Fold this sequence. Notes:
Helix content is 44%, strand content 22%.
Amino acid sequence: MSKILIVEDELAIAELEKDYLEIDQYEVELAADGNTGLEKAMNGDFDLIILDLMLPGMDGFEICKKIREEKNIPIIIVSAKKDDIDKVRGLGLGADDYMTKPFSPSELVARVKAHLARYDRLIGSNQKSNDIVEIRGLKIDKTARRVYLNGEEKIFTTKEFDLLTFLAENPNHVYSKEELFREIWDMESIGDIATVTVHIKKIREKIEYDSSKPQYIETIWGVGYRFKI
Ligand code: CA
């Protein structure tokens, strides 16, 4: 649900806007003066702000400027004075839209919807999704290098993570300890194939319910290990 902040000192207008937005399932908070408005805008996780210009305390011009220094969320400026709206445009304060009072609340809701949709698209296109391997309750986030078992994070060392990820990305393939050692540890590293055994044991303690009956990494006696899919 999108959260909207209305900064407006005329309670009747604020309540009317709130009612219309709530009918459309938006969560709405009100601020009746400039300082409260700025404080809420900076500290709350709002998706959009409807900002009146003439306010007690700090005015809308200043609030708009300060929000823009920190946040990219859409700001719709509303004012009774068309001159003020021209001034906002002129100052380039970074508002996304302007409405002159009186306006119809349904027009406001339509604009809110349009700006939220546009902002979502913008955010969506900038967000790179993480590279994730997911097998039966085990989730390996390769980008963040984190492992979760049924939603609970398990802490892995670098080599444990590399080994688990390598096996999980190559399931149903039996690897010998020598192969795994070559794959995960570089040539100069001190250690031998016993290192692999130790790491497999540590990984199992973190992801298996019962290490003697592993659900993920199977031991193929005399050969090596295989990740079950
Ligand atoms: Ca006002």
